[in-house]
Amino acid sequence: MKDLKERAIRGGTAKVVAQAANFTLRVGSLMTLARLLDPKDFGLVGMVTAITGILNLFRDFGLSSATVQRVDVTEEQVSTLFWINVLVGAILTVLLAAASPIVAWFYHEPRLGWVTIALSVSFLFNAAGIQHSAMLQRQMKFTTLAGIEVASWAVSVAVGITMALLGCGYWSLVVMAVVLPLSSTICLWFATMWMPGLPARNAGIRSMMRFGGLVTLNSLIVYVAYNLDKVLLGRFWGAEAIGIYGRAYQLINIPTDNLNSSVGEVAFSALSRVQNDLERLKSYFLKGYSLVLALTVPITIAGAVFANDLILVVLGPKWAATAPIFRLLAPTILIFALINPLAWLLFSTGLVGRSVRIVCVVAPLVITAYFIGLPYGPKGVALAYSTAMTLWVVPHILWCVRGTMISFRDIMLTVRRPLLSGVVAAIFAVGVEFFFGQSLTPLVRLALGGGVLLAVYLGMLLYVMGQRTFYLEILRGLKRSPVKEKSLAPA
Questions:
Q1: Cα–Cα distance measured from residue 298 to residue 340, given in angstroms and rounded to the nearest whole number
Q2: Dihedral (Cα; 29, 34, 35, 37), 10-degree rounding
């Protein structure tokens, strides 16, 4: 426990570096595939993944979170949870394959039947590595996890691009989606060198199953709320509309997904280890919250100000219609940075039931927004979605922190520094766009504007807002000699 802070810093840094590499791979693959494939290719796969993503939530059944959050866990318990995960994965594979004709009928697209069947096997591949990943996360071996993530994405991207070059069309995206969990699970087995034992009937996993069930229910409601927009657009506006909207949505969510995966996993593991030490819990949470906001603010500003240039550079001219949708969705990057980290607090302290109640309110709010914007196409849905999420931010924060060691004032003090720094940086970014908007190429304009934005933001945050000491402390934590880590055996 004494070295927890240093291990969290090193693990968080490893995850951030890995997510930076993943970001490069994802954006690079998107840039390449966007030029090799058509919007309809992305739209076809997007129609299925919007549905398969719901079932994908059940592959874990929240049992990886239960393994990490539990103070003590035995070998017998982890083995039993492994076989439960595999059973769930097999059931989901069969169910999705059996439902493939229904998916094709729903979208009026016969090709989706075989696409659905192919994507179904990813559930089984994912399930076989869930507990192995949880063991690494529990032991805070995030450097190992980071390496696995990068390697898996590299293999997946290489396969997808190769197939696209060979003229495989949308099948390159399908195989790419299946190869990712397969390569990840293979790496996880080699990294842990752990073989599960036989399942035990009296392993004492009832409370873990309850915790996992609530986590799964929470994830299910969240997924439906945040993905129904793509289902509705695909159903009523067609493959091209969902292809354009989906690329904007994907680009917007890359920073959110990367930050959640990098900082979120480390924060959840660290907070779970100190859940009974309220002072350390509060300190660790607010520092992690501050870090996520600091990384997110300049990304949000860049997305809003330089949307046209970003789309031209990343996707190419034929995706120009994506730019206004991207700009409308840009505020959600910051919104999710404000509300997502609060799940670390709720889950690590066992308040997952409150999280479920909160998302039961969020879901109807955003779904109503989708239906309001749907008659106006992708732009209308994007505007309605961003507006609904913006209105929900403050109530969400107040509800999450009520009765915890974190106050609303703590949150506001933490938010103040990066937001004020961002406002000043945004003024300079808009100035660059205004004065050089017509005289430079998109790539040069984006590089210049991004450089000015980042320089002003860092100057404000580190020196004017006095955050230099905070980041120097993180660097000092990285320089300290790493302690010998524990074995992978459950503890």
A1: 18
A2: 110
